[in-house]
Every structure is written in structure tokens, then in C-alpha cells.
Amino acid sequence: MGGGDGLFNKEFPSFRFLESISVPIQFLIVCGKNNKLRKQLEVELINSKHHVKIFGFSENIQELMALSDLMITKPGGVSISEAMAMDLPLLIFHHLPGQEEENMEFLYRSGYAFIAKTEEDLSELINQLIYDSAPLRRMKVRIEQNHSTSSARDAIHLIVEAENRGQSPKIKNKSIVKKNLVWR
């Protein structure tokens, strides 16, 4: 997965590097609404030694993630949030400057993601994980241990606290927020 332009763009235009991965594995590639990329990959990977499934826009991303051991992606907020909710380890490949760079650094420091800077790094990391999946298992456990099941409640609590201090953005109907919140 990798955003509107896809993980592979002018800087990384090809998936041919996949053939350097030593043993056949399954790849689920989600192109979103980028039909040009999807068609390109269907042609490019037709004779791949790997079992490759290419998807366009998908309503069932959580199901694809549940089938996966690792998600290769850019560190965009939505993609990484979905992966963290599914306890899915990440391999970050390519990022945009700014927020995505900060996301990547946080994920790496937290032990939730690997980083590949080149196609060679990417295939080397995948090869290593094929033969030694212990780093993936440790990463999954680390994500599970830090997984918040109350993030929505925590966010509302912070909004209400800020509102009580007069620091929050204007909420149109404050009475709804105050009447419906019960903290335990």
C-alpha cells in the first residue's frame, strides 16, 4: 500500500526487484484508485515466480491486513493507523518529507517498523524475514503491548479537558458533549 501515487513512482518505478527474493511468497498489492499503476503491475508481474494478487480500491483492507505478515507501505497516517489497529508490522519504503518522515522515525524508534531506503534494501529485508521470522514476531508483540483499546475515549477526554480550560476549538453544541460523557 502506498497512497494515491503508489509506493512506486518516478523514483522507484518497478516491482521487478521482487524477483530477487529467494523463494516464492505471496504479495497482496493494493493500488487504490491508481488504475494506471494496477494495469502496469498486471503486465509487469504476469510471469512473476511469486503468487501476486493485485487489487484496486478495496473496501476490505482489514481482511487483507489480517492475511498479511508484513505491510510494505509509505508512512501515511491512515495506512499506518490501520496497520497498528491490526497489530501488523510495517516495512517502510519511500516517504514524503514532513509528516511522513516524522511518522517513519517514530515507527522505527518504537520498534513497529523496518525501513528500506533502496529496492536492494527492500528485497534483502524480505529475504532475511523469510528465513528468520523472529523479528516480525517480536515486532507484532511490541505493537500488541502498546495497542490502545481506548484511544477514542482518550481523545474525547482530552477534548473535554481542553474545553473545560477554555482551550479547545469551538464546539457547536457543548451540552451534547458534556451530557453524554460519563468517565469511569
Automatic annotation (TrEMBL):
Residues covered by the Glycosyl transferase family domain: 26-140
InterPro entries: Glyco_trans_1, Glycosyltransf_28_UgtP
Presence of the UniProt keyword Glycosyltransferase in the record: yes
Any one GO molecular-function label of the UniProt entry: glycosyltransferase activity
Keyword Glycosyltransferase assigned: yes
Matches recorded under Gene3D superfamilies: Glycogen Phosphorylase B
Any Pfam family hit: Glycos_transf_1
EC numbers on record: 2.4.-.-
Keywords from the UniProt entry: Glycosyltransferase, Transferase
Name of this chain's protein: Glycosyltransferase
UniProt source species: Chungangia koreensis
Lineage: Bacteria, Bacillati, Bacillota, Bacilli, Lactobacillales
